[in-house]
Design brief:
The chain is of the alpha/beta class. It contains 13 helices and ten strands. It has helices spanning 9-19, 22-29, 36-47, 91-101, 116-122, 137-150, 168-172, 198-205, 212-221, 234-242, 263-274, 289-297, 307-339, and strands spanning 65-67, 70-72, 76-78, 106-108, 127-131, 155-158, 226-231, 246-249, 280-283, 302-305. The protein has an eight-stranded parallel beta sheet with strand order 3-10-9-8-7-6-5-4. A two-stranded antiparallel ribbon has the order 1-2. It binds ligand FNR. Ligand FNR is lined by residues 27-28, 41, 79-82, 109, 111, 130, 158, 229, 250, 252-253, 283-286, 305-307.
Length: 355
């Protein structure tokens, strides 16, 4: 890892803001509407207070865990996020290498610059593939087959974006892929779409009619585990479990429904509804080891980060993403020690102060 001077993820974010183009910064950093949910995602972690236990032998801390049977060195993965190629020529391949080298896991977005095969090769056995369902199901089916053949360990179906949220920063400064670039899972532009920016065009390919019946369809297409990403209620989590799926609690980084509840606030009711029948993941606003600790204490098996990984990629490619993950792992280890917890399995709701 190159010796990077950043002490924490906020410093990396500030440094990345200096190097990103205005359009890439608007696209990465922005949220929907007034960005109430975007801010709440972070503020929620600060507002939760910890109940540390003392006089526990913390000379050895073990941050390792498993997700869907895959061993992780620490319970942090990379959330699916589009267009890594906006900031680094190696794009998702660099991010995937960093995830593999730190014993993490990466969820590859449908809207990637690099092919599923290239990214899978960079993170053998440590890749999940994120799906948006296309109106043309045969395209989705072909992507599922490719993900399976490339060795993806799970499919992540994102369900909180049947239509694109109103992200005003990118309405003002639309993000564009480099001229001539064809995104491998999106394909060449259809005639007549020239006036649309890349995100709006992608949105026209997706099916806004997506419903639970389609999840049954998807379940029948593959034997891979399916994780439903973007759930925020006990009701939907229970439905996901009834459909044989795992649950990813998320408000899409505050980019879809503004003023939606945070994943952290939704987690207790979801953990209660799931009741151990499926794995639960969480994302949104995680920037500190204590954030990871709190999410795990409330029932998440692992957490995921999107923007912090993108900022690392923008600053130093693969080594930058590794720096992001290393910081989170080291901070989690420290937080566990200061809480008197030596193993991931020991993190429970007793850690959270209820006032
Ligand atoms: C995203 N997110 C996302 N989610 C998804 O399922 N498919 C996608 O292609 C994308 N693309 C995407 C691009 C960018 C630039 C961002 C910031 C986010 C949402 C992502 O997976 C995740 O839910 C949140 O971003 C997590 O919050 P943090 O870690 O960014 O605060």
């Amino acid at each position: 890892t190159p010796d990077l001077p950043y002490l924490n993820l906020r410093e990396m974010e500030a440094a990345a803001a200096e190097v990103l183009s205005p359009a890439a910064l608007a696209y990465y950093a922005g949220g929907a509407n007034d960005e109430v949910t975007l801010r709440a995602n972070r503020d929620g972690y600060a507002a939760l207070r910890l109940r540390p236990r003392m006089l526990v032998d913390v000379s050895a801390i073990d941050t390792s865990t498993t997700v869907l049977g895959l061993p992780l060195d620490f319970p942090v993965g990379i959330a699916p996020c589009a267009l890594h190629g906006l900031v680094h020529p190696e794009a998702e391949v660099a991010t995937a290498r960093a995830a593999a080298q730190t014993g993490s896991v990466m969820a590859l977005s449908t809207m990637s610059h690099r092919t599923i095969e290239d990214v899978a090769h960079a993170a053998p056995g440590r890749l999940w593939f994120q799906l948006y369902l296309y109106r043309d199901r045969s395209v989705s089916r072909a992507l599922i087959r490719r993900a399976e053949a490339a060795g993806a360990r799970a499919l992540v179906l994102t369900v909180d974006a049947p239509v694109l949220g109103r992200r005003e920063a990118i309405i003002r400064t639309p993000v564009r892929v480099a001229p001539g670039t064809v995104l491998p899972n999106v394909g060449p532009r259809t005639p007549g779409s020239e006036g649309l920016d890349d995100l709006s065009y992608f949105d026209t390919l997706l099916d806004p009619a997506l419903s639970w019946a389609d999840l049954a369809w998807l379940r029948a297409q593959t034997t891979l585990p399916i994780i439903v990403k973007g759930l925020l209620t006990a009701e939907d989590a229970a439905l996901a479990v009834e459909h044989g799926c795992h649950v990813w609690v998320s408000n899409h980084g505050g980019r879809q429904l503004d003023t939606a509840v945070t994943a952290l606030d939704a987690l207790p009711e979801i953990a209660h509804a799931v009741a151990g029948r499926a794995e639960i993941y969480l994302d949104g606003g995680v920037t500190r080891g204590t954030d990871v600790l709190k999410a795990l204490a409330l029932g998440a098996a692992a957490v995921f980060v999107a923007r912090p990984a993108l900022y690392g990629l923008a600053l130093a490619g693969e080594g930058g993403v590794r720096h992001t993950l290393d910081l989170l792992r080291d901070e989690l280890r420290l937080a566990m020690a200061l809480c008197g917890k030596t193993r991931i399995a020991d993190l429970g709701p007793d850690l959270i102060w209820r006032g």
